[in-house]
Amino acid sequence: MVTETAQYSALHCFFNFKQNDEYLLISNTLRFICSILLAIAFYFILHLARHSYAVIQISLGTDIYTVSKMLTHKNVSTTQIYADLVNSKKRETANKISLK
């Protein structure tokens, strides 16, 4: 006697997702790989959002100490990296201007 267990897609596991009222079948290995990839992608999206927020705040003139506390950095020197990025962009833009 062979018994079969239902297999669900990675989307169903995370979001209880249905398509055409039938569950999508997928192998356990592929479901595991998709789950890991979704978790990694989610981590990087949050990390990139954090970096973007810091650069935007510094470029708008927010104090480095304030941005450091918003990002919960222990040292202000960690936040200084974002200021260096903004300063290098300003230098590149200023160097493009040619006075004739």
Automatic annotation (TrEMBL):
<protein>
    <submittedName>
        <fullName>Tyrosine-type recombinase/integrase</fullName>
    </submittedName>
</protein>
<dbReference type="InterPro" id="IPR013762">
    <property type="entry name" value="Integrase-like_cat_sf"/>
</dbReference>
<keyword id="KW-0812">Transmembrane</keyword>
<keyword id="KW-0472">Membrane</keyword>
<dbReference type="Pfam" id="PF00589">
    <property type="entry name" value="Phage_integrase"/>
</dbReference>
<keyword id="KW-1133">Transmembrane helix</keyword>
<feature type="transmembrane region" description="Helical">
    <location>
        <begin position="30"/>
        <end position="49"/>
    </location>
</feature>
<dbReference type="InterPro" id="IPR011010">
    <property type="entry name" value="DNA_brk_join_enz"/>
</dbReference>
<dbReference type="InterPro" id="IPR002104">
    <property type="entry name" value="Integrase_catalytic"/>
</dbReference>
<feature type="domain" description="Tyr recombinase">
    <location>
        <begin position="46"/>
        <end position="85"/>
    </location>
</feature>
<keyword id="KW-0233">DNA recombination</keyword>
